[in-house]
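Submission sheet (multi-component)
Chains listed below:
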Amino acid sequence: MTVIEETSVPSPRDGGADGGPLLEVRDLHVEFKTREGLVKAVNGVNYSVSAGETLAVLGESGSGKSVTAQAVMGILDMPPARIPQGEILFRGQDMLKMSAEERRRIRGQRIAMIFQDALSSLNPVLSVGYQLGEMFRVHQGMSKKDAKAKAIELMDRVKIPAAAARVNDYPHQFSGGMRQRIMIAMALALEPDLIIADEPTTALDVTVQAQVMELLAELQREYNMGLILITHDLGVVADVADKIAVMYAGRIVERAPVHQLYKRPAHPYTRGLLDSIPRLDHKGQELYAIKGLPPNLLRMPSGCAFNPRCPKAQDICREEIPALVPVTEQDGSELVGRASACHFWKETIHG
Amino acid sequence: MAELSKNDEQQDATPNVSEVEVVDAHSETEAVAAIEAPVERGEPILQVRNLQKHFPLTQGILFKRQIGAVKAVDGVSFDLHQGETLGIVGESGCGKSTVAKLLMNLERPTAGEIFYKGQDITKLSGRALKAVRRNIQMVFQDPYTSLNPRMTVGDIIGEPFDIHPEVAPKGDRRRKVQELLDVVGLNPEYINRYPHQFSGGQRQRIGIARGLALNPEIIICDEPVSALDVSVQAQVINLMEKLQDEFNLSYIFIAHDLSIVRHISDRVGVMYLGKMAEIGTDTQIYDHPTHPYTQALLSAVPVPDPDAREHRERIILTGDVPSPANPPSGCRFRTRCWKAQDKCAEEVPLLAVPERFQGSDTPAAHESACHFAEEKDVVHAA
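Outcome: structure written.
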């Protein structure tokens, strides 16, 4: 145990080479060529994460939250995907302009990803020890024996009981929560600066979800990592996020620090989501429901993509795409970190 | 209950499937009459007693021998009253979906009885069973796999009429299907479309329309909204509540989302590893849970309120749910329970009102299967 303690002590990390954010996504567009036409999955997304910070990206299926993350990771299938414009700056360097070899060095070592479905993201015919060790063998040229020792250490780190005995087991021999821990261990292996977690607990039961989220938060604190948490669960977001970006139809429609978003949403879509959570005092009454359906990305409505479902929609919403503008207090004083892409954000936040 | 025990005597308690096949015509007619009789609102319509389902584990290819059993459901009892919604919550693998299948008579129970209006449906066959099946319908979890992609919406919703033609005469079916589409909030002109032309929420509406087709009295909903987007979930929940009032339905609502279960349910049962851990009204379960598993489950649910995260008490359970093939002795929760003592390993706690609360009218006085049941408010803990 003492050996493990010594080696797993994290090296203290600076916030970023120049004190700026770790990762900055600027005006990112992603589109897919399909037989039915061009699908614009991401239409100008901006967000940034600093070291030690948790950004939650909230959105329904088809909102472009996962595609954005895949573009950051550089694991989009291109073609059919295409990135017509945008920048992804990692410590100030644009990753989209890097060579494949340079990106390969960042991926896994500096930015790692945790996927939703651990069973299908792990290789069923290789032992988990081998798969964990692969990180060290490929990136650091370690020997098989050393890599296995490291794998055991990692499994201990994510609190898998009897790690030394289970290192040669295969993914199907682990329970869902344990498999997700292995995914986390794999992402942590090379102590990356940033972890992107794409719905890490959606497939898990609540009691196990609580275990996994706590582990993730603990490791994040310890290594001072940046974390991008992609989810649709408003409860999980409230528990762990520092700031939130709400996505709808490939755009960020609202950005806010976590406490403010829940108290005073500045976009009708966010308000609708919050209102549709069943609340105690509304028992027996009808739930608030956002009417209609999320838009088809092939036939996007003109103007604001949310206008067919929005209770506040006016003519301008059908004509003009609202820009993501800073949100201010009623007296004009600034609300730090807040922005909304709604023509009527003032009415939405100030009542 | 008097009627219930009479029934017990008549048919003996042995649930042997092969014996049941022979039912004389007289008692069958009697059973059908009982099934078709209306039940007063608030009276029990479905009574489940000590229900068990064990799936055999076998070894060997040619000469299979049984080496054990997965005890998916192991002694579950509850009542469903007319017009109410009973929520059943629990983690995956706790047996809630198996209970649903048993209630639907899709699986034969290993032991135990399910009384529908006093008739034990596990022993029925022929006309009587058909009559029961008409009255208990199901809505499935995944609207993508539970609709046949090669059938039109009209065929899917109209198929129950082929089996029960007495509900809608042949010439009347198309109109009936269109009526159903209208009831669930879909355009009646969609009758000739195929499932792939609809979104997830719309498909779930089609599934609900199919469940309603035969005017059932009970609908069993197995995770009806968990595959849907957040903004669409509320629409489907509202629809289900509206239909309950309109058609006087009783629901068994199986889900893992505790806040939705609380919203829709009148009473809630918490299952753990094939057993019912605690059952009571929604207020009793959510505000006054006495079983440690319920308390842990409730405290683990993320609350959509960031202010609560600093001062919320969380019970984080260690480890995973044990295998139902080899459950722990005594209380099944004891391996993960912080209160566990020797007694818990030796004695199976029964589902009953705990002694200390008996006779008092506190909300904590509801059935809980724990030796050391005590109140702990985890939802409002500050």
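Remark: The first helix of chain B runs from residue 2 to 11.
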